[in-house]
Amino acid sequence: MKLGGFIIMLVCMVMFLEFLAVPTGAGVILSSFGVEINPNTSKLDTADLESSTLWNKIFLENAGILFLVGAAGLALIGFFGRGYDTSLVILPIVLFVGTLMTSIFWTTIKYMQGTMNAPSWATNTITMIMIGLGIGFIMACVDYFAGR
Fold first, then answer.
1. The whole model's pTM is what?
2. Is 125 helix (H, G, I), strand (E, B) or coil?
3. If DSSP codes are grouped into helix, strand and coil, which group holds residue 86?
4. In this structure, are residues 63 and 56 in contact, taking their beta carbons and an 8 Å threshold?
5. Angle between helices 120-146 and 3-19 in degrees, nearest 10
6. Which residues are registered as beta bridge partners of 47?
7. 83 versus 36: which is more confidently predicted?
8. Three-state DSSP class for 63?
9. How crowded is residue 102: how many other Cβ atoms within 10 Å of its Cβ?
10. Cα–Cα distance between 3 and 144 in angstroms, integer?
11. Taking Cα atoms as reference points, which of 81, 78, 91, 82 lies closest to residue 146?
């Protein structure tokens, strides 16, 4: 599987765990996009991007204008400067997702062991799934960066 597929799969898994009321820490990221989930019922309360803090930072405050000017500048540089390595652009995204997934996997396993008092077979099953996903993500990263 390619690197982009693994990133999408891991992010969707985190959102799925968040909707199941497993504290993954992704609630902060979701709330910046205007998505609020009730932690008691796992019900989606609101999903309003236009009133979110991220929307305000991009479009309504002074930094919003700087963001638009910066994006236009990057597009202009992209048209004229095609000699750069695209791995330098993708590397921060891969590092962010990899760090986030490691943190979320560890938090989920600790949550299952401590708060839920889950049986050992359930914890071991989730651990094996997460280890398999982690190894697949590492292999996809090696394939992307070294297999060019």
1. 0.61
2. helix
3. coil
4. no
5. 150
6. 35
7. 36
8. helix
9. 13
10. 7
11. 91
